[in-house]
Amino acid sequence: MRRVQIQRTVADGLRVAVRASVYAVLGGAALVAIATVASVLGPLLALDLYTPPVAAWWTVFTAVAVQGVPFLLLGTVVSAAIGAFVPERAFRRLLPRNPALAVPVAGIAGAVLPGCECASVPVAGSLMRRGVAPASALAFLLSAPAINPVVLVATSIAFPGQPKMVVARLLASLGTAVVMGWLWARFGKEKWLRLPGRGAPSAHITGLRAFLDGLQHDFLHAGGFLVLGAAAAATFNIAVPRSVLDVFTASPWLAVPLLAVLAVVLCVCSEADAFVAASLSAFPPTARLAFMVVGPMVDLKLLALQAGTFGRSFAVRFASTTWVVALAASVLVGWWLL
Fold first, then answer.
1. Which of 25, 35, 129, 279 is deepest in the core (most CB within 10 A)?
2. Rounded CA gap, 210 and 133, in Å?
3. How far, in Å, CA of 335 to CA of 122, rounded?
4. Which spans are transmembrane here (predicted)?
5. What is the pLDDT of residues 221-255, one digit of tens each?
């Protein structure tokens, strides 16, 4: 019997190793394909269909997509590693028992989970299932994709020579997460929140297999939204007439809510949204800050994920309130720093 178990363990290890090799090959092939399209096929296509708008569209699209892919890959690798190898109970042990103190601690703890905002929803659900207070888990859900090191480094590269933009994003995002946690602790009702179940057996897979599954899901899922976001940003820059933009860019009171709404619609991954924001150079800094603060916390894909995980009643209330708080935090921090 023991020999059979050893043979099964070895067989499982071989299957995991083969699977890792396949994912590595596929991941490398995907990156090579992106680089090839961006550097070779794109210019050729632009020459065949050359017009100034086409060339401008391709320039913006390539800049956003190619600059964002390395940070997206790094974020998904670290996120998958933490999800697979760091036990969820470790987060619970770090939180104080006092709810008022636990919320900001949970918000700061979001910095240890680099990755797509999509990954924060199941992690927050798992924390609630393990007994973590919903207010703390929700603060973690909002801060994790917004203040982690990968996102902040990407922001510093997208805005070279503008360290205040990085600091402003950190403060506004963390402030939004903490305020939302406190608001839920004070006004949230249990009937609004449907606690997630334990999920399918595959959700309990751990170790290398869980890492590979998480990496594959996060990279492919978030990568698709990155490409769509880059295309949408390029189209927005080219298709929207300058006269229309001037109406909004001339007034911060119109530009800020416009980009806050645009962040909800574009659904750009948090590791890459700074490059999209930087491409919207016609807008004032506070408006671009609002785009980066709102996006990782409220967008259409997150609304769908939250509705499926915690219930539609919760998702509508939580997303709408978060949008208002994130907008207010962006305006206050932008007025102070930018």
1. 279
2. 26
3. 34
4. 21-45, 57-86, 137-159, 165-185, 219-240, 252-277, 289-308, 314-337
5. 666 666 766 677 677 667 767 676 667 777 778 88
